[in-house]
């Protein structure tokens, strides 16, 4: 009985974490869509790029943590994606790119993988 209850608590906690991650990606995608519509020099762009870079910095820190239980190959792939997203966002911030669509698509694919 105790083990069953503990397992349920762990499953519920995992579901809650995934839901918060999906919500963070939803927010990032919404901000990126607004930035894409308003253009590079807009406040929306600044907000979107800042949010995406903070989100992925936190995710990468979690992925490289020894406490992260994902398989090493998956962690490596996600870190690579995250580094690309941070780099692409930085290029947009510096005016070297306006490739919001790629950021939107990549974040959408990652979000959809959390389901």
Question: Which structural traits does this protein have?
Answer:
115 residues, mainly alpha, 4 helices, 82% helix, disordered N terminus
Folded structure, characterized:
The protein is mostly helical. The chain has one domain. Helices cover 82% and strands 0% of the residues. It contains four helices and no strands. The chain has helices spanning 2-38, 43-63, 72-93, 100-113. α1 (2-38) packs antiparallel against α4 and α2 (43-63) runs antiparallel to α3 (72-93). It is globular. 18% of the residues are buried. The model is unreliable at 1-13 (pLDDT under 50).
Query: Radius of gyration in whole Å, from Cα?
Result: 16 Å
What is the number of domains? Answer: 1
Structural class: mainly alpha
**Largest β-sheet summary:** none
Average pLDDT confidence is: 89
State the share of residues found in helices, binned by percent.
Answer: over 70%
> What are the secondary-structure elements, in order, as H or E?
HHHH
Q: Strand fraction band?
A: under 5%
Detail the poorly predicted runs. 1-13
Total beta strands: 0
């Amino acid at each position: 009985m105790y083990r069953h209850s503990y397992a349920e608590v762990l499953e519920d906690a995992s579901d809650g974490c995934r839901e918060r991650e999906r919500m963070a990606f939803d927010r990032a995608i919404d901000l990126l869509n607004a930035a894409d519509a308003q253009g590079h020099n807009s406040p929306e762009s600044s907000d979107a790029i800042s949010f995406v870079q903070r989100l992925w910095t936190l995710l990468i820190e979690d992925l490289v943590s020894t406490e992260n239980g994902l398989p090493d190959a998956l962690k490596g792939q996600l870190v690579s994606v995250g580094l690309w997203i941070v780099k692409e966002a930085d290029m947009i911030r510096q005016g070297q790119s306006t490739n919001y669509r790629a950021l939107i698509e990549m974040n959408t694919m990652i979000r959809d993988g959390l389901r």
